[in-house]
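Notes from the 1:1 (GR / supervisor)

We went over the backlog. Supervisor wanted to see one worked example end to end before approving the batch request, so GR pasted a single chain during the call. The sequence is below; no edits were made to it. Supervisor asked that the structure be written out right there so they could see what the output format looks like.
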Amino acid sequence: MKQLVAMLTFCVCLVAGLQARSTTLPVSCGNDKIQFDVKTQKNQPAPAPPAEGKSQIVFIQFVDRNLGCWSCGSPTSRVGMDGAWVGAIQGSSWFDLDVTPGKHHLCADWQSAFGTLKKKVGMAEFVAEPGKTYYFEVKMTLKAYVSGDSSDVDRDLNFAQLSEDEGKYRMKASALAVSTPRK
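Structure output shown during the call:
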């Protein structure tokens, strides 16, 4: 009996340790405990050019879903830069940020309490030049499927830099995201 209890205790500790390690975020992200509330505003104008001596980044989220997944909700992703969260986007939306020129490390993850979704992390790095605007897309994919008597949803996250034309087009088709950290 003591061996069974010891073995169960060991297994629980092993699983907890693996779960903790699997949700560790890259250093380009932010503190995993920080979550955001997001509100979107449709038909907003494009942002003004970056401030003098600054660069601008526009983060755009695109949600790709199949017909079976229209009830999957509006996913939220957090965006980090150089080790701190800078905002969040929900559904098909965007936000912009003025930054200092130089090299930056970016991160996007699926804001979720589910450990499996927390593993969905995208990263990028780039060198910002003064006066330029850069566009990055967080593409969230939701695909519902039925297999036998059960159904499930596959979820994925991709993070990539867009061309200026693609970025401007995606912004026009999206709402402005205004995010605030939860207290």
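Supervisor's comment: The radius of gyration is 19 Å.
Batch request approved.
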